[in-house]
Amino acid sequence: MLTRSRLRRSLILTLVVASALPAGAARGTADQRRAGPPRERAAEDRLIPRNVTWAGWHGGTPYLRHDGLFVGRTSTGAFRVPYQITAPVDAGKGNGTVLVEPSHFAIGLGARDVYLRPRLLFGRGFAHAGIGWSTADFGPGQNLRILDPKVPGTVVEGGTAEGGGRTDPEIVTEFARALSRDPVARKTLGELGRTYATGFSDSSVPVLDLVTSGRARGVFDLALPFTTEGADPQPALLAGRFDGRLVIVNSEAETSATLLDRGVVPGRYRFYAVAGSPHVPDHLEIPSFATRTTPASWEPALRAHFLQADRWVRDGDAPPASYHLKTAGGGVVRDANGNALAVDVQGRPAPRPPYVELGEARYVAGFVGGYDAVRTIGQLGFASHAGYLAAFRGRLLAQLAAGQITREEAVAMRARAALCPPLTYTQTYRDHYADFVAMRPCPSSA
Hints:
Helices cover 29% and strands 21% of the residues. The chain is built from 14 helices and 18 strands. Strands 1, 2, 3, 4, 5, 6, 9, 10, 11 and 12 form a 10-stranded mixed beta sheet that branches. A two-stranded antiparallel sheet has the order 7-8. Strands 13-16 form a two-stranded antiparallel ribbon. The two termini are 35 Å apart.
């Protein structure tokens, strides 16, 4: 069986590598919306394929990873940067949507690999396209804005000087346009119906800047920067400088005052901030420097709001109303346990994660965050673990009803709360971390 599987993969790779190489003109006419106004230099922007590798089965569909170089010119200078496209072997098996991600300086394509994750994206037929956009180097292991610093001949001549190199966010929009018209891209992705953009922290900066500057107009149907800071994007949406939909998801740690939803473009803007969460959460199944720092996370909210935003673009189904941290006198308003309160755009209380609502601990925001003052079920006022679980489930259902979490994530969270009676969700995270991650009962509870 293993030999047969390897043979099948080998045959798939052979066929796709052959079909991925340029061989004539693109099929049909490029989408005029993404192509933008005619420009003399547009023909210079092209994808040069280098290699194709296996990317696994997702939702019963085989995916491949296509690496190459994107070569062209922005309004300020020429570039030659790496790209990486992950797409179904058969483009017709995809959902017609590509998610474009500028590479993060230290994590690379973290939106794909860490935060949204292949299971969610590829299991639903999305394609992903990562792009290098800067030759800035901030120290050992911190030069990944170029996506792959080992690729020879990379160059960014335009943009601005930064970190001993140059940074040109306009490469991101040039790449997104090319995905709809370049012959190599069209063979890889097929006919695209939607193009989205995302980035986090460092890589969210070009996404938000492209929106507010107007350079993303006519390019992206959806922009999803998260854990981000910057200028208020709502004037750009009002003025028509960006004509797609914009959704932002932040932790408690970011300075978000400029991003709060003021209700001026309800048909195209949402902002969400998750109480108790740090800038970098514990990814649980993915080891990192944030491992064992805190069980509080904004990742479940991000995944839920991404899927809602996709439905917003596809079907016009409006996502849940924005929510943010409650503030007064220039500071965050907190409950008796020291945890931030959340409100919607009308100032009404918004659900928080159940462990925050129940006051299982005080969750400390920050770069990686933390927690202290952990309380037992008795200190929380419950006579039994069953009573605690019922209350936890009730808070979780409120989150689910508010659209702040997917049903899959809710099931996992409820399971973790039940693993180690009489311990709470937070106590299990602290005292039985391996069991918490694996979602298996603690030895004493089995």
